[in-house]
Design goal:
Layout (H helix, E strand, L loop, with lengths): L1 E7 L2 E8 L2 E5 L1 E5 L11 H6 L5 E4 H6 L3 H6 L3 H5 L5 E4 L2 H7 L3 E4 L2 E5 L6 E4 L1 H11 L3 E3 L11 H26 L10 E6 L5 H12 L5 E4 L8 H11 L9 E3 L5 H8 L5 E3 L2 H7 L2 E4 L2 E4 L19 H5 L2 H9 L3 H27 L3 H13 L3
Parallel strand pairs: 4-5, 4-14, 5-6, 6-10, 10-11, 11-12, 12-13, 13-14
Antiparallel strand pairs: 1-2, 2-3, 7-8, 8-9, 15-16
Helix pairs in contact: 6-7, 7-8, 11-14, 13-14, 14-15
């Protein structure tokens, strides 16, 4: 259940109550694709850096170790030792982005595993069953993510099929939640708005799925080829047509600036691999924008990554030391940087919530973007 606590213009501050706890929104979900954050970051670490929601991937976990294995071990929460909310994406994005050979039909998608090439079929029912076995807090509907730009005719047909798939997802989830041996009988379902960069297709789809009374609504198919300006335009067009008493989730986005701009347009939930991926490659976020710790100028720098940051990395280690770890190819380098970056994102969301609560979000947004754009 979503409770709107405050609204300033389009900016929303809320609470989302789930069977695994209450989520304060706006929120950034930390991406643990295979039930782990890449970079040797544990579920215990996640709590220490303020993570509220962990996100895992249906497609990847169905292949390794297998959703049946996770079900036998008591579900994803027990498996990875995480007692807060988990969102699982439907696997749709991976099917369309990873599979080299795929065939889309009304029943679902036929494709080959990116691991061993074996033939796999996934449709709405299969996605729901896998996510039910994982027993996540929130399951995402199975949809087609179309790369931008795409021909209008193809996008229109794809959206219509995605709507039909969503209806099947809802029926199957209701069935699974009613079974006596289902681990999480309170699993929630979020629908996904698609439509490429076509405003009218997006708006019409938003209206249709809004009538389906789902637990939340996502805006999908963005950050896949279009410009930031196009993305912001689509968010502005779509959000007014989604239910205002349900959480709104912008999938796979993005940079700190993207997040501030999307919050300003009414978005509540975010996820992105960017902070962990960048951290593993020595790129870290600071109050003055990103820096690369491999830069020669940090060789003798005995200051923390960010002097104002309170993360475990900045409280204990210097830029010079972390740079040395990268040069020596020590795994600890990645771990320290991923922890810092995820803390940066989770703390950013806390500051955003505080700014909305304190009625100074517009000023906060302006100051932050100016800081990040300033040169060191």
């Amino acid at each position: 259940m979503y409770k709107l606590l405050k609204k300033q213009g389009c900016v929303r501050r809320g609470e989302f109550t789930t069977v695994h706890g209450v989520v304060q929104t706006p929120v950034f979900m930390n991406v643990g694709t295979l039930a782990a954050i890449k970079g040797a970051v544990s579920s215990v670490d996640l709590k220490n850096i303020g993570c509220q929601v962990e996100l895992s991937n249906t497609y990847h976990l169905s292949l390794r170790p297998g959703d049946d294995v996770i079900r036998k071990l008591g579900g994803l929460h027990k498996f990875m030792n995480w007692d807060r909310p988990i969102l699982t994406d439907s696997g749709g994005f991976q099917v369309f982005s990873l599979a080299q050979i795929r065939k889309i039909k009304e029943e679902g998608v036929y494709f080959s595993s990116h691991i061993d090439g074996r033939k796999i079929f996934m449709g709405p029912e299969e996605s729901m069953r896998i996510q039910s076995n994982l027993a996540s807090t929130i399951a995402m509907a199975f949809d087609e993510c179309v790369k931008n730009p795409a021909p209008r005719d193809y996008v229109q047909k794809s959206v219509e099929r995605t709507t039909r798939w969503l209806k099947r997802c809802k029926v199957e989830m209701n069935r699974l939640n009613s079974l006596p041996d289902t681990i999480n009988k309170n699993q929630m379902l979020f629908g996904i708005n698609q439509g490429g960069t076509y405003d009218d297709i997006r708006i019409e789809h938003a209206k249709i799925i809004s009538d389906m009374n789902l637990d939340g609504y996502a805006i999908g198919g963005l950050a896949v080829g279009e410009s930031s300006e196009e993305m912001y335009r689509i968010i502005e067009k779509v959000v007014p047509y989604l239910p205002q008493d349900k959480p709104i989730y912008l999938m796979g986005v993005g940079t700190p600036t993207n997040i501030l701009e999307a919050v300003d347009r009414g978005v509540d939930f975010f996820d992105c691999v960017l902070p962990a991926r960048n951290g593993r490659h020595s790129h870290v976020f600071t109050e003055h924008g990103q820096i690369n710790l491999l830069n020669e100028k940090y060789k003798l720098d005995d200051s923390p990554i960010d002097s104002k940051c309170n993360c475990p990395t900045c409280r204990n280690y210097t830029k010079a030391y972390i740079r040395h770890l990268f040069k020596a190819k020590e795994m600890l380098a990645m771990r320290l940087c991923v922890i810092h970056n995820l803390y940066f994102y989770n703390n950013l969301m806390k500051e955003i919530r505080d700014a909305i609560d304190g009625n100074y979000f517009p000023m906060y947004k302006k100051e932050k973007i100016e800081q990040w754009n300033a040169k060191e």
